[in-house]
Write a structure and sequence with these properties.
The structure holds 2 protein chains of 2 kinds. By secondary structure, chain A is of the alpha/beta class. Helix content of chain A is 28%, strand content 11%. The relative contact order of chain A is 0.13. The chains are: A alpha/beta, B alpha/beta. The interface between A and B is medium-sized, with 28 and 24 residues.
Chain lengths: 328, 676
Amino acid sequence: MSKPKVAFYWCASCGGCEETVVDLAEDILGVVEKVDIVLWPVAMDFKYQDIEAMADKEIFATLLNGAIRTSEQEEMAALLRRKSQFLIAYGACAQMGGIPALANQFSRDQILEFNYEKCPALDNPQKTRPTLSLQDDGRNPHLPEFRNVVRTLDQVVDVDYYIPGCPPTPNLTKAAFEALLSGNLPPKGAVIAPDIALCDECSRKATKPTNVAFTEFKRPHQALADPDLCFLAQGMVCMGPATRSGCGAACTSGNMPCTGCFGPTSRVRDQGAKILSSLCANIEARDEDGINQTLAGIPDPVGTFYRYGLAKSILRRRVDLNMTASGK
Amino acid sequence: MAMEKQNQEPRIGFYVCHCGTNIAGMVDCAEVAHHVGTLPNVVMSKDYKYMCSDPGQELIQKDIAAHGLNRVVVASCSPLLHEHTFRGAVEKGGLNPFFFHMVNIREHDSWVHTDRQEATEKAKALAQAAIGRVAHHKALETKRVDINPTTLVVGAGIAGIHTAMTIANAGKQVVLVEREPTIGGHMAKFDKTFPTLDCAACILTPKMSAAGAHENIRLLSYSEVTKVDGFVGNYKVTIKRKPRYIDEEACIGCQDCIPACVFKTPKFADEFNEGLGKRRPVYIPFPQATPQIVAIDPNVCLNFKKGENGDRVVSDKCKKTCVEACGDKDAIDFTQTERFEEIEVGAIVVATGFQTYDATRSPSYGYGRYDNVYTALEIERLVNASGPTGGHVVMRDGKSEPKSVGIIHCVGSRDKKTNAWCSRVCCMYSMKLAHLLKEHTNAEIYNFYIDVRTPGKGYEEFYGKLLEEGVHFIRGRVGEVTDWAMTPEEEGKLVIRVEDTLAGMVRRIPVDMVVLATGLEPQKDAQDVRRLFNMSCGSEGFFLERHPKLAPVNTFSDGIYIAGACQGPKDIPDTVAQAGAAAAEVLALIDKGYVEQEPNTAFILEDECSGCKSCIPLCPYTAILFDEKTDKAWINEALCKGCGTCVGSCPSGSIVQNLFEDQEIFSEIEGVLAYD
């Protein structure tokens, strides 16, 4: 009997998720023993034509990481969806847009203008911008189109499961493989991680006072964090209460507050809105000036509360950006 | 059985009410019914003339049986009016009442729009939202909460006193709070009352002392409410006791301290007499004040000095002859400070009264510029036998009697530049003062009026009597009061310039004294009081009743009632009637003994709660506790009022509120947005 076929693919991502697969270390041998990897651009040489040549659903599972920004990513997502029994959004970017989705605060024009004209590190006197295609010496090279907004994988194609994290941990990845291969599957659409907030597994939980009453907010570089005390009790924004657990409280164990990469629990539609209402409601000041003064400690609320989830949030983007259903 | 019903496919019945022409006049009800009939899960959709009528309610009950409905939506008026009615109808039809949802297409739609097409579209969108929501409704049970039988009455003018006395006479405990050193309010300052001309003090002061001595009334004078928490039946109220520098228990009201004061003669403006008389730093507002306890005014008493923060602190520089005079009673206590007391009550009656229009806001009438221009309230004191002149009407020079008096009506009333409303009492009190001034001085009296409004028992007859007495009535709004004489007869007089609209000419009437019939307006701090008690104000700033006809003393907060002029200008008979009505409402509430609480409470999903404690300090009712054993939050359902604060702020979505579950709210939003 032939081994089940598995594909790894990356879209708008940093490569960190690929690292996690590598981080499986010797466990990867166990995976390779049980499956055939048919696509893994970061590590192995396959051609897209090989995939196109496959029968529909021939791939058992595709783990796709990265958000969807370009027409090429859209096409690959659709192709892999067609060829796979299970399409898994792997990592925060595929699940919620991730860091690339912070670009949804800016229009396509603003982004292109900055990157090809205004960026101080740029040397582009002709202000050349990428074009979709051109004639060059009888060749006709073409580039993918840059869409108006960043989208999550499930805003483009149907997704079966989600493995959260920036990046997902090796443990979760292994557990997901085991579930897939054993056929012991959660209901479709599930996020393969515990459905309780991070505080539950955080060693600092007991040190959180009942009434935190924020008087100021500090960012991690502005103070030396106490290694045992709840970050919120220290006036540092910690996304833990609004973030799914399952990472083993990796960041808080390393003396850094949670930044929310595992996304919200299944009961929450908008992670940023939730932590925002929770933290703001717990500000000690009751007058507008006092509240503003406390909030001045959070200079970038979108980058703080929607660091990974902007594309998946209720607003998805700056409200004055055009967005059609196809994200064009 | 409840679970069984929850698991059924929703079968929704929808009704849109015409409310006569209230809704149907602006909304095409048949079209709304037709549209809703096409929506998923809707098995029956009708429009009907009056859903709240008995046949309307029976229609719901019949349809539940005939169509196997398990959800009902009615689009009609505000849920405040008829949610209860329809829930009852649904329950009679055999369904849990919370499978019902109401859509407001009257107050929120037909009454506030002028375009029939747009209003119809809006009604459809609102109905679609409700259809989306009701599919997720669950069966819920109401619960009962006991009512604390003690009542708080705020303000002890005639309204507050009458309310407190009525409730106390029924054997219930009342806490009566008054911010002045004495109770009595405005009525205590009046000389006579219209139209019967019985003396205000003679009918009020027995009531005042009875209230002060009543075994069921706890009187807290010189005190103010600063905080109100809780809900109908169970309010927690914080009361600030302002220092009067007198031990209320020890003072026997002998008033020996007053003449003993180091100030040999009274020197400071006397508020009770509208500044027309003088008092000492230690004083009692008027002879029949209740309680009979003096007060010390730290702003003028020599034993105080200005502190660092501008407040008054004890200087101990005075000889304290008052303390000597008090002797063994030892009732004077300069060390008193503000105290705060928390009380628990079940119902609250707000009877905070009115203030009179500030006559300096109408500069053309010369109040504050010409000595002999008075406000009506000043004249009340001037003609009063216990007033600053012992009832002798003299002008501000202290000796000359007026030979002619002009009374200008509607000062700060019925005027777009100041207050648009009619103050209701000024015509009558102006005529009363005209009568009294004539009686005291035999002067010529001129009334300048726009209309004479006398819609009360015996009021028109009183007007007739005044005409017979020879009081002059000149119809026209006065242009100005001036001392600029144009003829020798006008020299030294105040000249009232007015267009006499009956004679059709501009007239100049020289008089010795001018009385401004200032109108009634909301107290300066009415907005603060409104917030304190979670009430609403009308556009003019008076407290808003729940319904102008059918709930005139109720507010939109259950268990909080209003009485008297804080609700709008009114005379003493109307005030007392309203005070009695408020007392009846309170007694009905107390005697019922319990309130049924909406089951819209919140609960924690125990398995999902991460124990982050974010919700705990936010609960305004301290209903959330942290369970140290389970390391999770826990909501005491009996204390939860369903405000939703914790639900919105739970960062992991682990608190759910009945009737406001995420699915219900998102379906509602999706419904309203899906329609375009």
